Amino acid sequence: MNWKIWSLKKSPWVFHVNTGACNNCDIEVVNCLTPKFDVERFGVTLVGSPRHADALLVTGVVTAQAAPRLIQAYQQAPKPCVVFSIGACACGTGIFHKGYHVVGPVDKIIREIDPNAIIAYVPGCPPKPEAMISGIVKTLNAL
Amino acid sequence: MKKKFKLPILATGPVHPLQEEMEFFQLYVDGETVVDIDVRLSYNHRGIEKISESLQFDQVPFLVSRICGICSASHPLAYVQAVEEIAGIIPPERALYVRTIINELERIHSHILWVGLAGHFIGYETVFMWAWKYREPVLDMLEKITGNRNNYGNVKIGGCREDLPEGIEEEIYPILDQIEKKMDMLTKAVLDDPILHARLKGVGVLKKEDAVNYAVTGPTARASGIPIDVRRDDPYAAYDLVDWNVCVQEEGDVFAKVVVRLLEVFEAIKIIRQALAKLPKGPITTEVKEIPPGEAIGRAEAPRGETFHYVRSEGGNTPARHKARAPSYVNVPSFKASCIGEKISDVLITLAAVDPCYSCTERLGVVAPRSGKVIYDFDMLLQLSREKTTRIRKGL
Amino acid sequence: MNPQELVEKLNILKPRLTGFEQPLENRIYLHCESENCFEINKFLFQDIGSRFVIATAIDCEQYFEILYHYSYDQTGCVINLKCFIRDHERPQVESITPLVPGAEWIEREMHDLEGIDFKNHPCLERLILADDWPEGEYPMRKDWNNEKEI
Predict the structure, then answer these.
(1) In this predicted complex, what is the ipTM?
(2) Residue C91 maps to a domain
(3) Which of B76, B129, C48, C61 has CA 20 to 30 A from A53's CA?
């Protein structure tokens, strides 16, 4: 196993990017950190800068204005970096697929700049905190 | 406006670790004082009003519940009321009560969430963790009633989609009792804390005339002494059939907003108890044939303020025009009135690591290292911290 | 003021209105042309003391409508001022932002999405659309469809 991947799997630090979500997934992301679910006991913590992050939690359909900012955040994150598309909108634009201000799901935007990006999908509207934790665990095991 | 000032600009955002959504604030500062503020939106603009024109009347509630995840009961309710007004549909009484209960549960969880976040912003992590823990039972209850923790999708034209499950009353009452007890404790903790008083009182004052000019709604208006509440002024659902009060504070500062929201939690608990007691038997939905041409307005009081929906029908299957206004749309621009003249740290509400007096979560029990005997339990720690507060207050 | 007094007070506006509807007791629709729009808004906001809620712009193919929604909270009445802009090519109307500061954002939004010009607006800049959105594309107009590539 590549030592970079090995170190990525221990205590992943996450950075949260909202690219046009309805706040629902965001609230559930924060919920994961609060006493009932408390992922900090596994070493998962929310950091304030993409430069410190092992994983990006991207919520929401990518809007025209947010897309350049998402790309910037991804470029700033040290590689290898896992991108989690949280929620139906981020996975496949969901109910907003007809919107004029929507440029696409998260994977389309990320793949444009990095075709080999590691992207994981956590569907649901919003996914429950249990689903998010399970998604993170499964992804890290699959690496 | 940008050309007017040749002052340093402090850019905040768009991806900001504290705010969950992307927003871009430009603060024009003179020293440490904020002179002007500029907000750039569009990061979250998804074009919902245009999408709504391509959906059928029945599908729109699912779309509008995704305008905002925390107000996901109020937006569909306002829309549905507008369509019901066009078609002249009167939903059955039981549906009105079910709508009221879900909306008030949403208000409780939203206000507790806000109190937690407010604590987080001023560095009071204890309140953040407590508050988010206390709102979990409410989410569990909403999941039991509607099938989802957020985005309930329970309201439809002519009534409700799902009835309350059998025997849910016996489960809701103990949870309400529990939340009331916890919130009572939290409210006392917040309202008695001299450090919070020092940090929040007189900060970010929104004067009454500014509140009128910026047309703010909800707790923001009520904290500035404007007694408006759609639930009372233009009653919908079952709010005119139960007894409750509108909470108003005069000061307009951050502290008043905390107080209004905390008191509203207790009013919401009162409303749910009465609604459960009065809940009539019967159907929860009526038949809807077609939506005739016409226009109408639906209003509902979301946790953040008045939600306003305007729907125009031209007799087809889809709305000809659907305007949705979320409460924050008028509340956010009032920053211009309340932030100017404040210090940067107050505007961002990030600084000020408040010395926490109440460093006792439920997890914490002080155990003597050798014997393993519990010296202090939660209640005793609470008592200790109250005594400390009293000592600090005397000293101030 | 009770609902009857409110309607009587609105009667002062009658010479400047082109229509008056009251489908329900607490829903009033006033119609006017765009020239009189500012004075009527001033009357509703300052003299009656109703709260500005929002404005809705509607593209009706030959003309534009702007609905100014006001809420009279003492009786729970919603007063809707329906202002017709007959010029579909260059829609223009007086801005009410100098009167109601809370209307700044919605006028900028209508400018972005429907292409309506607001005279005397203090800062009619882009608010709701992306920075790289092309000029002259107004997504909320009826002739703009979702499939259009930008």
Answers:
(1) 0.94
(2) yes
(3) B129
Domain shared by B133 and B53, yes or no: yes
B357 pLDDT more than 60 = no
Query: Which chain A positions have a beta carbon within 8 Å of B113's beta carbon?
Result: 27
**Residue of C56, C97, C121, C146 to mutate when probing chain B, most B C-beta within 10 A:** C56
**Which pLDDT does position B126 carry in this prediction?**
85
Indicate the pairing of strand B305-313 with strand B321-325.
antiparallel
Number of domains in chain C: 1
B189-209, pLDDT tens digit by residue?
888 888 888 878 887 788 899
CA–CA min distance A43, chain B (Å)? 17
pLDDT digits (tens, 9 = 90+) for C26-77: 899 999 999 999 999 999 999 999 999 999 999 988 999 999 999 999 998 9
Distance CA B131, CA B111 (A): 9
**Do B261 and B370 share a structural domain?**
no
- Label each residue of B15-40 as H, E or C: CCCCCCCCCEEEEEEECCEEEEEEEE
* pTM for the full predicted model: 0.89
Q: Which of A66, A51, A58 is nearest to A103 (CA)?
A: A66
Q: Which domain holds residue B384?
A: 366-395
- The verdict on a CB contact (< 8 Å) between A100 and C130 is no
Instruction: Enumerate residues 15 to 74 of chain C having a beta carbon within 8 A of any beta carbon in chain B.
Output: 23-24, 26-27, 29, 51-54, 56, 58, 67, 69, 71, 73-74
Are B77 and B99 a contacting pair, CB within 8 Å?
yes
Q: How close does chain C come to B323, measured CA to CA in Å?
A: 7
A12-142 has CATH 3.20.20.140 classification: no
Q: A20 vs chain B: nearest CA distance in angstroms?
A: 4
